[in-house]
Each structure stands twice: as structure tokens, then as C-alpha cells.
Specification:
Layout: E1 2-5, E2 12-15, E3 18-21, E4 24-27, H1 32-37, E5 46-52, E6 58-64, E7 72-78, E8 80-87, E9 98-104, E10 110-113, E11 117-123, E12 128-134, E13 143-145, H2 166-170
Antiparallel strand pairs: 1-2, 2-10, 3-4, 5-12, 6-11, 6-13, 7-10, 7-12, 8-9, 8-11
């Protein structure tokens, strides 16, 4: 597996090695040993999967406040998305900056998003299946969102009128949220 760092400290693209022949292909999608060798020490405790029917559907920007914050390892198994991570750690040199990566069933890339970052994606195709691992269990009490079109963040989603849930249309802007992430130097 290959690690490609992004401009956001700790957020990285993972490209698995794919072995193929006339029968098809095989790839390893998760190995604690390989991830540790790549500098990722998250211990994942829950797997999630979502299906999105229509192209142009936007989910996010989501996170869980501490102490139930979550690191995520995300990938697409059908279709394609623009996947976005946003630095929500007050005091970080990249606070409110974001990175977007195309993840698809074809490119087989994964994105690792540490605790302290918001996450969202917009579907680039119909019929998208999205899977991800998290290193902390879901907590309704700590579940939060930031408005997808927050002008202080300025994510370029590439879609003018996204399909949104009620939650995502009413999430607060970051400046009005109770997001409790704080930058702690190089500790992610």
C-alpha cells in the first residue's frame, strides 16, 4: 500500500496494491500491520456503509465532538465521490482548510481522516456505495455537522444545487458551532 500525504497534516490518500489476471483482481483493503508501517495507528471499532441513489447528493460536513471524536478510513465500492476533509482544530496552521479527493470503485483509493477533522462527500455518479471504518463508536449525543456551504471554509463541491438531508441544510456554520477540537501540535 502506498501513502500519499495531503496539505492537511495527518490526512492521507492510501493506494492499495492491486493484483490482477484473466480472472479479475485482488487487493488488501485493511491491515493493522501495513497501516502502522504507514504511520496510522488508529484502532478501528466499527464499519459503516451507505448507499446514495442520485448523482449530486451531498453528505456532510460531519464529525463527532470529543471525547467521542472519530478517525475514519473511507472508500467507495461502487460509483465515485468527491471526498472532503476539513481541519476543524482551533489553533491549527491549517484551521478551516480543506482537501478534496476523488474516490471511486475504479481508482480504489482510500482516504484516512484523523480525529479533529470534519468529513463530507458529494456523489459524482448515481448509485454510490461508500464504506468506512471508524475508531470510536457512534454517539448521537456527540454527533455534529457544519454547514456544507460555510463561507469561512469555502469547499468547492462542484455542484450548484446539491441534494441534501434536512440535517445538512440546518447545520450551523463553524463560527456558530460547539465544535470542541483543539490543535495539539503534531499529535493527531
Amino acid at each position: 500500500m502506498k501513502r500519499i500525504d495531503t496539505k492537511l497534516e495527518g490526512v492521507c490518500i492510501l493506494e492499495p496494491e492491486v493484483f490482477g489476471d484473466h480472472r479479475g483482481w485482488f487487493m488488501e483493503t485493511y491491515s493493522t500491520k501495513v497501516l502502522h508501517e504507514l504511520g496510522i495507528d488508529a484502532v478501528f471499532v466499527q464499519d459503516n456503509q451507505s448507499y446514495t441513489k442520485e448523482k449530486g447528493t451531498l453528505r456532510g460536513i460531519h464529525f463527532q465532538n470529543g471525547p467521542m471524536a472519530q478517525a475514519k478510513l473511507v472508500r467507495v465500492i461502487r460509483g465515485a465521490v468527491l471526498d472532503v476533509a476539513v481541519d476543524l482544530r482551533k489553533g491549527s496552521p491549517t484551521y478551516r482548510q480543506w482537501v478534496g479527493v476523488e474516490l471511486s470503485a475504479d481508482n480504489r483509493r482510500m482516504l484516512y481522516i484523523p480525529r479533529g477533522f470534519g468529513h463530507g462527500f458529494v456523489t459524482l455518479t448515481d448509485d454510490v456505495e461508500f464504506v468506512y471504518k471508524v475508531d470510536n463508536l457512534y454517539s448521537r449525543e456527540h454527533d455534529r455537522g457544519i454547514r456544507f456551504n460555510d463561507p469561512d471554509i469555502g469547499v468547492e463541491w462542484g455542484v450548484e444545487n446539491p441534494i441534501l438531508s434536512q440535517k445538512d441544510t440546518t447545520s450551523p456554520f463553524l463560527k456558530d458551532s460547539d465544535c470542541n477540537f483543539t490543535y495539539e501540535g503534531d499529535r493527531i
